[in-house]
Each structure stands twice: as C-alpha cells, then as structure tokens.
Amino acid sequence: MIGAFMASDWMSVSISGRTILLAILAWYILLRVLENKGVLDKWNASRALGVILMVRTQKGLGLLEKLARPRKFWRAYGEVSLWVCYLAMFLTGFVVILAFIAAATTEPLEDPPPASELLAIPGLNPMIPLGWGAIAFIFSLVIHELGHGLQARGHGMRIRSFGLLQLGPLPLGAFAEPEGEELFDAPRKERLRMFAAGPATNLFAALIFMLLISAAATQITSVHQSVHVQGIVDGAGAQEAGMLPWDSILEMEGQVIPDYQTFDEVISLSYPGDEVEILVEHQDGTQELLVATLSDKREYYKANNWTDAQLDAYEIYEGEPFLGVSGISEATAGIDRLTGPFSANVEASLGQRLLSLPIHLVSIMIIPFELQGVAIHPFQESLLTASDGFVGSILGTNGILFFVNLFFWIAWVNVLLGFTNLVPMVPFDGGHMFKDIVHNSLTRLKKITKKIKFVRIHPLWIDHISRRTSSLSSLAILFMLVFTIAIPYIL
C-alpha cells in the first residue's frame, strides 16, 4: 500500500508562495549580473519582461530539416490540423463567452480559489505538482514548437532558431523563430496551417498519451474486489451507523459485495425503515460491522428541494431504500476514470469509444482540481496492483503507476496548451488565425460582390478591417477573461 502511494507522491512537490517570490528575486539578480557581463550575449540569450530568459539555439535545425522532407505529408497534416483547430477555437471562444455571461449574471456560490491557482506554473499552483508539471510542460512546449517548425518547413519557410522561455528552471514557453519576411509574405492558407500546427500537435499528443494510459491500465488489477464510498450524506443511515468516507463495503446482510451491481441488488431487497448489517473496512485497514437504518430516497431528495418532475426524470420513486452514501465505486474506479471510454469496464464499440475520446480528453482537466493535484486519489491508488502479465511482473505496481501518472500529466498539459493557444486573442495562435480567417472571409466577399455594379471592396479596406477586427476581438476576449476571473474576488 505504501508503495502505491509513493508511485504518484514522489513527483508531487509544491512550493510556498514566499519561496517562489524569493527565488524569482534571486533569478532576476542573476540575470542582471549575467547580462552586464555579456554572458547572455555569448549564450545567444536575452531577457524579456525583466525575469524571463529567452534562450535561442540552432541545434535541432538539421533534424527538423530531415523530418520535414515529406512536404506533401506535412501539408496534409497542416490541413487536418487547421480543421481541428477551427473546431477547437470555436469551442474555446464559446466557453469563454458562456463563462463571462455566467459570471455577469449569477452570484458566486463558492469562495474564489487562491491566487496561486490562477497561474499554470508547476509548484506554485498547488494543483500542478512541480515534478510531473515541469516534465510535462517541457515535453509539451517542445512538440508545440516542433509542430510549428515542421509546418513552416513543409511550406518552404526557413526557421532561424528554436528556443525556450525560462523562469529559473521552469519552462514558461517555447518558440520557433521563422524568417519574419517569409512568414508574413506566405499565402494566408499556408500561414494558417503553420499557426494551427502547434496547438493541434498538442491535442493529437494528448490523444496518444490517453491511449497509452489505457494500454498501461491493462497491466493493472485490483487488490481485491469490493466497492467503496467516496462521501457520506449528513443525517442519513450510513453516517448514524458510523460509516466514513472511503470505507470499503465488504459484505451486506452477510453477502459479499464484489461490485456495484451486487450492492444494488442486495440493497434493493430492503425497504425504508429496515436495518441492514454492513461489514466495512476503514482506510486504516480495520474492519467493523455496522447496522444502518435505511430511509426513503425520494423523501430525502424532496427535503433537499428537488421537484417531483426532477425526481421522475431521474427515476427516483417512493419506497426506494436510501443508505446515505455517494460516489459508490468499484476498486478500479481510479484508473477507470483516467481511461474513460477505453476502460475494460465500459461496454461500447470501437467507434463509440473513439467518438467519446475527445470529450473524455476535455473532462480530465478537472481531475487535479478535484483531487488536489493528483491523477488518482491515494486511497483508490492503494487498491491497485500489477497484474501477473509479462509487463506487470517486470515493472511492478510502482513502475506501472509511475507511467500512468507520467502519461496523465503529459496529456493534461497538452490539452491545456492546445486549447489555451486557441483562444482567439493575439498573441495566441488562435488570435493570429482569427485575423487571417477574417481576412480570407472578406476576400471571398470581395469576389462575390465583384459582379455587383455599385459594390466595390478595396483590398486596403480588407487589410484595415481584418486588423481592426482582430484588435477589437482580442480586447473583448481579454476583458471577458479578466472579468470572469476577477468578479468572484470583488463580490
């Protein structure tokens, strides 16, 4: 059990805000000293925003050239990336608008999160552990810029250098510097593909690593078959009997409970007011026989302001027994949540699994916030063990869970970078794409109206409107983002 905890915890390091501020001050002083002594010039590096180190290198350009040789492939890849980003950018903008409307029309129900959670910096943000986060960010930033670079070379644009944006040892960003004139002189369709390739590569990588998690999950099984409860309802039978969150239900009314279906079948034989004997195992490993009095499920929800229509919609009828527990889960629930549609416990065709994968990819973003910076709850992780297969016997439980955590954080950061860069606001990739999309749309409109005698659209007007639209939309989205983030702290 201790080993299972260590599999995820040894990389889950967070740092206090005061330590971060002192480290940033020391980093700033170090950069100033290196800058004054000319060391940064020798490193082909420079400072940005005071404390950001821009490190440039020509290393990797030769490899980039070799990888970019199948030009037709990369152009086709760019076209696929473009359509993926069109959809993702629309969804991102739609979510930003919905969040703004919700923030403007409803009063916050919960206290706002600490300021440290607003920055996606490993270690500073308690939801992004330093170890896993740093590894995942470095990998994700590199492939993001590699996507840009391959697409640029695929269309004949030269790359001057690669680079990283560093805040101390932490990577804040990466960049591939194309020749400026070649980039802005390129046809807009080619430039759109180049901008789309970075975030699309992140999203494709996230899909691949989610599939790798599913492959790793096939080498994991549960220590023993059982169900556990994640929460206890106040005032209901389970709490009064002494049941605690994360208790495992081993037996009920003398019958072994190996899965949720058995639990549901056993409890359905009882009625409100009945007393049931439940053998539970607490987190400390001790077992206890409890006697819980069941209540009426429909009456409980009606007392919590549910309407009859809502209860009927959820098929909660009068006379159903209610134990008073929530989140009833089987022993493999922790890993099943990560694998999503590719879990062995999900009955679906391959097509259904593939269609559900993008939705699952977005849904995993909430996991670290629900579980305080881990991929699997420590208790649920303790229920897992390596299978008897070839891989399981070599890697062991800790080894397999190490790769599960690594793959999860790489997938998580890639989703974060992919969608963040598609916010239709300059300087993000989505902002540059939006500007070219507006320009292309106005150009098509010009061709359509060319046959109309009294309608003439001047090319300079198209350039002016596309730039103006891009600037105004960027300001509008920036305002919505700042408002959505700030309003909970103001109210």
Strand composition percent: 5-15%
What's the mean pLDDT score? Answer: 84
Shape: globular
Biggest beta-sheet profile: 6 strands, antiparallel
User: Span between N and C termini?
Assistant: 44 Å
Structural class: alpha+beta
Report the C-alpha radius of gyration, rounded. Answer: 27 Å
Count of the domains? 3
Helix content: 55-70%
Enumerate the spans where pLDDT stays under 50 for 5 or more consecutive residues.
Answer: 1-7
| Number of DSSP-assigned strands | 16
Helical stretch count?
19
Keywords:
491 residues, four-stranded antiparallel β-sheet, 16 strands, disordered N terminus, Pdz3 Domain, 56% helix, globular, alpha+beta, six-stranded antiparallel β-sheet
What is the structure about, briefly put?
The protein is α+β, with helices and mostly antiparallel strands and 491 residues long. It has 19 helices and 16 strands.
Can you walk through the features of this model?
By secondary structure, the chain is α+β, with helices and mostly antiparallel strands. It has three domains: 1-222 and 334-422, no CATH class; 227-330, Pdz3 Domain, CATH 2.30.42; 428-491. Helices cover 56% and strands 14% of the residues. The protein contains 19 helices and 16 strands. Strands 6, 8, 9, 10, 11 and 15 form a six-stranded antiparallel beta sheet that branches. A four-stranded antiparallel beta sheet has the order 1-2-3-4. A two-stranded antiparallel sheet has the order 5-16. β3 and β4 form a beta hairpin. It is globular, with a radius of gyration of 27 Å. It starts with a helix and ends with a helix. The model is unreliable at 1-7 (pLDDT under 50).
